[in-house]
Structure formats: C-alpha cells, structure tokens
Amino acid sequence: MRIVIGSDHAGFPLKAAIVEHVRALGHDVEDVGSHDDKPVDFPDIAKQVTSAITSGASERGLMVCGTGVGASIAANKVKGIRAAVCHDVHSAHQSVEHDDVNVMCIGAQIVGAWLAKDLVTAYLDAEFSTDEDFRRRVEKLHAMDAER
Fold this sequence. Notes:
The protein has a five-stranded parallel sheet with strand order 2-1-3-5-4, sandwiched between helices. The protein is an alpha/beta fold. Helix 1 packs across helix 5, helix 2 packs across helix 3 and helix 4 packs parallel to helix 5. Helix 1 links the parallel strand 1 and strand 2.
C-alpha cells in the first residue's frame, strides 16, 4: 500500500520510528515533513498529507503531532478525508473497518514508539467492512461531503 506520512515539530521524533516500521511492513512511504524539529504549522502538513490521498498518490495517511487532535481537525476540513485520532489498537482498526478512515492521527506526547507501531499495524491491516450498515453510514458521510 502507498502511505503518506507527515508530522509537525512535536511529532517529528516519533515519525522516524513510524516511517521505519511502515517500510518494514512492506508499504511504500512518502514523508511530506516535517524534516526537523523546527516549528511548523500542522495545517500545512495536513494539506500535504490529504492532497496525496485525494489525488490518489497515496491510499492512506498517517499524521503525528503533539496530541493528534490538531492534525485530525485539519485533515477533516478536506473533502473526502475521514481522519481519526487513535491511541488504542481497537480504535486504530475499527476506524477503518466501520468508518473507512483514511488518515490516522497519533499524538507523540500521548503514546510512545512501541504503542505507535502497534497502532499503525492495526490501522494498515484493517479493511473497510462489507457490512451493509457500515457501508450505508459511510455513504451518508460522502453525501455530507458533497453538501460542502
């Protein structure tokens, strides 16, 4: 799978471990920054991550900031993006299985590298359910996007 990953300065140290892990899982990775610990605005990184997904260059995205919240808010401003903050393994896979999430956001000030790797594995291994209830609900999300 093609994965795009981005972080702000708060997420930069954790992002390196995540990129290495995603590659070890056999996925292609595009790292859109930040590339150092100098301050950067998370909405700018979110634009790059979401653009890679909406253009079809990447299938899913990962964002790492201090709490994951700002990254999620910014990513969800983009039509066609469904972003979720996931700090537990259940949410990481269920967000894809039930809600077809295409950007997972992680807080580097909340989780360490060992848990982040488990979250990423659960997220990337998950597939959107074929259950009619979940499909219907996600179609309603698409309809809400179309109203923007």
